[in-house]
Amino acid sequence: MKLVVQGTNIDVTAAIHDYVQQKLDKAVSHYQSFLTEIDVHLSVAKHAKSNPRQTAEVTIYANGTVIRAEECNENLYASIDLVSDKITRQLKKYKEELRDRKGQLSTAETADQLSDGALVTDLLNGRQPELPQDIVRTKYFAMPAMTVEDALAQLQLVDHDFYMFRNAATGEINVIYERNHGGYGVIQPRPEGNSEKAVVVRSEAVL
């Protein structure tokens, strides 16, 4: 299993690297059979005096599945401890899903959770989008085709409120996300020729 440790605004010393490896070795000790790589990103805010937050982000690649967790604390080692514990819980959940496919939401249950008439504005909740002036990090992920049900299961593993995937039914890129008012929504492209680019719909895969 490959371990990659990188840092932003921080020098990843041998002591820090060894601590990360020690904590994650323990965290994944019961799950190494299906893990291929662990990517760790440590970061410290540029203005440490006014913003002492130190972040530890862990991304695990497991047989085509991405499992992610992130924790922040004023102490970097505490952040590493917290994210290691979270990763253990995420891996336990993933292993249970592999062992018992019945644990996944049924098609009917997924349909109940997906909004039938939600708008894209649910993602913003009335706020204006504020993008950073600079792209601070670029990530590349494999995007195999999957059903909406599988995408929902992935969303619950990545510690984000959205998940981008290639819809197996259409071959198109979709986004599944947690709605501010509960449940889940799916964003998918409109057919060519329509003036609007995307709409939140109930996916055909779960009808």
TrEMBL record:
Gene Ontology BP terms: negative regulation of translational elongation
Signal peptide: none
GO cellular component, one term: cytosolic small ribosomal subunit
Subunit and partners: Associates exclusively with 100S ribosomes, which are dimers of 70S ribosomes. Interacts with 100S ribosomes.
Keyword Heme: no
Coiled coil residues, start to end: 84-111
Species in which this protein is naturally found: Synechococcus sp. (strain ATCC 27144 / PCC 6301 / SAUG 1402/1)
Name of encoding gene: lrtA
HAMAP family, per database record: HPF
Full protein name: Ribosome hibernation promoting factor
UniProt entry keywords in alphabetical sequence: Coiled coil, Cytoplasm, Translation regulation
Protein biosynthesis is among the record's keywords: no
GO MF terms, alphabetically ordered: ribosomal small subunit binding
Gene3D superfamilies the UniProt entry points to: Ribosome hibernation promotion factor-like, Sigma 54 modulation/S30EA ribosomal protein, C-terminal domain
Domain Sigma 54 modulation/S30EA ribosomal protein C-terminal: 132-186
